[in-house]
TrEMBL record:
Family named by the database record: Belongs to the CAPAB/TerDEXZ family.
Domain TerD: 1-190
Protein name: Chemical-damaging agent resistance protein C
PANTHER family, sorted: CAMP-BINDING PROTEIN 1-RELATED
Pfam families: TerD (PF02342)
Organism encoding this protein: Gloeocapsopsis dulcis AAB1 = 1H9
Length: 191
């Protein structure tokens, strides 16, 4: 059974899916019917953070040009860039082996940005049906889902959710915070 979150809600993964060890985080969206003269290219990323809320190293920024975390187990893996977002279901996926994430990692921020948004005159107000979901990678069962319902009419970057450790267990925070300035705004926040 899926637990549906609203903006700002937090939930323990252990409470909603006891024994969960491997997940994939599916992110999806649709573009509203409008013509900006350019295709929309949305990109999912993961920022792997230490205690100071900053990326541990440049290699701890997981995106389409750096698909795996630097730890020996490659505990965080991006499955690749979807240039169009066409079709139903997940548009981009990030896999996480929760048991193998190194102890120095306190939080993994899951984000989505619009590639070349300023140059293309695009923003998240032109996107609809955006969601993030946590799926048990062993059973393919969706355990948590967060659908964005806010109108982000000027934002070009979103922090969708955060996986974080608290009291020895992984939890999820449905963040839904928008930023202007695209990927650079998020890099500035986490670097």
């Amino acid at each position: 059974m899926t637990v549906t979150l609203t903006k700002g809600q937090r939930v323990s993964l252990e409470k909603v899916a006891p024994g969960l060890t491997e997940v994939f985080i599916g992110l999806g969206w649709d573009v509203k019917a409008m013509d900006t003269g350019y295709d929309f290219d949305l990109d999912a990323s993961a920022f792997i953070l230490g205690n100071n809320e900053k990326i541990i190293s440049d290699n701890h920024f997981i995106f389409y040009n750096n698909l795996t975390s630097p730890d020996p187990a490659k505990s965080v893996q991006h499955t690749g860039d979807n240039l169009t977002g066409a079709g139903d279901g997940d548009d981009e996926v990030i896999k996480i082996n929760l048991q193998k994430v190194p102890a120095e990692v306190q939080k993994i921020a899951i984000t989505v940005t619009i590639h070349e948004a300023r140059e293309r005159g695009q923003n998240f107000g032109q996107v609809q049906n955006a969601f993030v979901r946590i799926v048990n990678a062993q059973t393919n069962q969706e355990v948590i889902r967060y659908d964005l319902v806010e109108d982000y009419s000027v934002e070009t970057a979103l922090i969708m959710a955060e996986l974080y450790r608290k009291d020895g267990e992984w939890r999820l925070n449905a963040v839904g915070s928008g930023y202007q300035g695209g990927l650079k705004a998020l890099l500035d926040r986490y670097s």
